[in-house]
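Why does this matter for the project? Reviewers at the last site visit asked to see concrete outputs rather than summary tables. In response, this paragraph embeds two records directly. Each consists of the residue sequence and, immediately after it, the corresponding structure tokens. Nothing has been edited or filtered.
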Amino acid sequence: MPRFTLRNPQSLAAPVVTGCVYFAAATLSVSVSRFEGGLAFIWGANAFLMAELLTSRISYWPRAMLACFLASMAATALFGLGPAAALPMAFINVSEALIVAIICRHFLSNRTVTGSMHPLIVFILALCGVADIVTGFAAAAVATLTTPASYGASWLHWYTGHALGGLICTPVLILLLQGEFGRWLRATPRPMKIEAVALLALFTLTTVHVFYWARYPMLFAPLLPLVLIAFRVGHIGAAASIVILALIGGVATLSGTGPLMIIDGSMGERVQAFQFYLALSFLLSLPVAAELNGRRRLFQMLQESESRYRAIAEHSGDVVLNISMEGVIEYASPSAQEQIGCAPGLLVGQSATDLVDPQDRDAVLAAHRQALARPGTVHQVEFRPLLAAGDLDCCEMVSRAVVDDRGQAVGLVSMIRDISKHKARQRALQQVAARDALTGADSRRAFLDKLDAEMARAAQGARSCLLLIDLDHFKAVNDRYGHSGGDRVLTGFVQRLLPELRGLDSIGRLGGEEFAILLVDCDSHSASQLCDRLRARLAAPIDVNDRGEAISVTFSAGLVALDGGSTRSAMLEAADQALYEAKHSGRNCLRLAA
């Protein structure tokens, strides 16, 4: 739905011009259509005020309404119901336009009422369903008090005159105030202008024939060229046709000529009938033109989107696929040759899952189903390709549903991106993060993850142990040899222990000089024997600097057998308590958790 730039007149002359135009329109309506001494049968002045309000910023509304209020008072006092009715009628006229403007502004958010069907319907309902019904009651009361006309006739005259005048004139005036006619002249190719002029000339000739020359009532005759103009020229042509029809038919009817003279009634009734005819012509042409205009914009947007899509697909390094609802590839971008080593033409007609390793096909299918079930959302999935060129070993597929004009999914567009290098860097970073940078032991996080996994195995009946180790008097090492000497001791300590550990066992540095060893498939007795062997391997001194100085180190340890029914925190706490007892038992010893 198009938004347009709202006018914001700053000139002091702008409201004066608005008031003058309103006064001229009101005076003309009263002069030519106040047939029975009551309200005018034709009223287009409020259509001008509605167009002013709907195309301008709210800041301009008070000035425009004040100018039209004064103009309405003058027209009513001089040519209409008289001075006594001037003030209330001015208030009622301005209220009608204000009600329509407020409703349209609220529901349309500055969108033009001529752009497509929805805003046009909102405008019609605001005018005919609310504003003219409400203000008609007040206007009929004023007319009843100041003229001999009955209340019911006055209300009907007000409603038909204002509703039909607003329907016919407001959309045309909006197009005029927004400069749509000028834009159409500048943007339309010459051949289309010639076609439009020819169609409007045909319409004019048909209308003149119907209202001046035809021997039989042929009010249906202008409708065919009217619809043709709506199709070929759009809402500008439809609006111009309504203006031509109003001018020719209106002059003919007011001068007592034309097919409406067959009506056996007053001139007012004939004018009302002509306005109904104009309104029906309006409802036939402008909505059709608005809908066509919307479809034309949609088609243009689709063309632009298609051009962008083709440019991206044909020059992107990623593989772009169009996939049907059945999962069959309907289009593959040229990059498929480079990325997966297969010509795009050979992929068309194949199932998209044929590109995926069988182990990952279920995940890819699930992502496709989710994208089709929720159009408008993007779904990502990683998979290993079945066929690949070069070192491609991991891909990411991003899929989004393609929808029709009803919003229903009709297929998928998917982009396949090579993320092999990204995954390799990710694995390298994970390996770095899993190792203690100083000693080469597992990091605290990595060790605890392994402990969690072993706790799960213990819950299934596996027998494993956790050994918590703390180097004895390590602070003294740092104080005497510095942190570089302490670092050498920590590194040497781990290197001495590693040969005694089995492939499934793990050693991790929990912090400072505190280490933990996870002994898989090992009972407490075997773990105690392993601890003795570890202590024996530390009998030889460890170098602390490059000057040949070396020291012997010992450790205290707490041992706990993993209980599958307990928690990781409980196991660590039990091992830590056993370690605490070992330290307070003279150090360089092992204690079992209770």
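We now turn to the second protein, recorded in exactly the same manner.
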Amino acid sequence: MKFTFSVLAALVAAAFCAQEASMAKDGTYTATTLGRNGDVTVQVKIANNKIEDVKVLSWSETHPVADLPKAKVPADIVKNQSTNVNNVSGATLTTFAIKAAVQDCLKQAGLNPKDFSKMVPQPQKVTDNIEEKTDVIVVGAGGAGLSAAVAAAQRGLNVIVLEKAHFAGGNTSVSGGCFNAADPEGQKPINMTDGQRESIEKLLAEKPQNKLQEDLITQVKQQWADYKKSGSKSLFDTPELHALQSWKAGDYKANLELVYRLTKEAPEIQETLAKMGIIWQKKPTQFVGALWPRSHRASNYKSGVGYIDTYLDLIKAENLPVAFMMSTPAESLITKDDKVIGVKAKGPDGKTYTILASKGVILASGGFGANVKMRNEYDELWDKKLDEKVKTTNMPAITGDGINMALKVGAGVKDMGYIQLLPTTDPATGSTNHKIVESTNIYVNKLGNRFVNEQGRRDVLAKAALAQPDHIFYIIGTEQTLLKDKEGRGPYGILISDLLKQKKAFKADTLEELAKKVGMDPANLKRTVEKWNEFCKTQKGDEFGRMSCEDGNKLPGGPYYASLMTPSVHHTMGGLTIDKDTRVLNKAGKPIPGLFAAGEITGGIHGTNRVGCNAVPDALIYGTIAGREVGK
């Protein structure tokens, strides 16, 4: 066979290039892409034209939501030699980020990413029906579900926990983690202001609407008299004051007996959590919508995930008889002679599970904040405008399944029309994890003007925010008041540098520079901050009626930060009707045998407006009660 010179040259060049490409392919490469929260850096090892290893080196993705994709997606890519592997439900953006980084590494190695994009077979579905038996079934593995499971297991009961998502945590794991509890010892460093004193006097002057409110007012009057007689200047607080404030904040619509049990047992649960490993910060603060400086947070955990990890660690350490069935949503309750005796559920592989519980079923599956249809069907506060355009802080799995299951067996519901919007959320995602300063810091609109008392009720704050241009505003803070750790991460574990890069937060040395970066009038912003600082100095005469300015709210000087905010659906105050022992009541107000409920799935505890930082104690206290009461 004869070849022309040009053909021979081409063959030699091709062979040379192939040799060069082969040499270029082997090695270790890294690439960084943007995930949900920030940069995701991935390392890929290439050998013999194959993906030999994939590792996630660093990221700010949310634990525990992103734990599964961090392990599963790299393993699936190596196993299938393809980046076209299945996404992890509930962590799609994280999955995409890992895939994109691997594709970048393939390009760096001289490989064509298209050669590593073959379709991966879908998991084979089966139709088996499996029956299981246990003492207690808990539906939902969030804060309420885990506390219920632990309390039941510590009584020696065998517990099966059904969880719709692929991880334990629910909304608790992505919450801010604040925990309201009266704590006079911890509150000693907080000075009482004239505005706070006046608010107590007004509360005690109210005409009682029932016997319990009358009793609580009588108790607080005596506590208040003793406090004033003592000459103390520290913040006054008691569980009874907490109850009265919370009931009023919900427009007196809640069941005061349930409210008082929450506030009375909160200090006890706080102490129990400390024994379990939670290290509380020494001084409580006042979170957005909390109404009083009694909001506690852990110093050894980021956000609400600390409660989840603490309960899971306890289950493991004490070898408690708790079995988890993840990615296994409950579909219906099983009844016999009007008693709830079990749950039907669907496994991730298609298997149907019939699980029978000899002692009872505890529903702890959350509210319906992520169910657009339900929230618009029930809404009584927002003119039926909570459509898909309105983001939510909720996990995607929080769609009211437990409520609908219970309705089918005759459960009653209460306060379903009361849905809370949280004013301080990310306009792009609805999440709260871009927070970098206290959410009770000064709120400033696009014009550079303050527009509301930042310590007010969440519904008031949300309505005020929605009345601002483009429904957005900024929370202003400084370097001195920044909530960051030694690694430069905010309270949710996200690098502040990533938030600045994504323009979810802004930084400047001066107020004038900050105003220009976010598009405000510099003179307006400067004038607004000057008035704010004067109020923080005197703690008197705030134009919006604010009662106090805590240390974390002050603006001592630059550098300055601004976080972009808008309201999103946060909490559904309505749900199943329960009694003080968490028994689910039917429409006639009678207990449904074998059925209990705790957490956001219940109604009657918050009324029209949930006080900020009452949700975690609600979940953990009533979850614990459910675990103690089930089967008695």
